[in-house]
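ENTRY TYPE: protein
CONTENTS: sequence, structure tokens:
***
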Amino acid sequence: MKRSSVAGVCAVALMAGVALMAGPAQAKEPAACQAISFRPIAAGSPDGVQDAGLKPTKSGKIEIKAEVQGGAAKNYFMAIKGNKIDGTDKGPKVSDGCLKSKHVALPYKTQPAGACTGERFRVVIETQGAKKVAQFFGLHGSAWEHCSSATM
């Protein structure tokens, strides 16, 4: 019995060695469409600009920040690579197919600039050729509402 178990261990070790010699794994392609979800900050946070979330990506750091007054968030905004993205509806757009795949119902409303709020938040990122486009949404009930857009 001992002889067969030693042979089995040697066979497993040999197969593992062959697998390691096969070469490094190939780099995985980034997803063409992705979403990152964030939660709102806790009630009673100190006044000023507070961090609500951070996600490092290959294209740069995405931050969600909240402007707090009287312990309540009055406006959330996205910052990419440290630059604040103001809420306008004139920014670049992510394709409808990408938004639908990330459960953003179409058509969506646009929140007024400086008044982005919600129960949860989502950044949808789509690779469009050589550039990446990010759209920031706040959830109200069951509907996502657009806050801002930017090229990364």
Notes: The chain has two helices and nine strands. The helical segments are 2-21, 96-101. The mean pLDDT is 82.
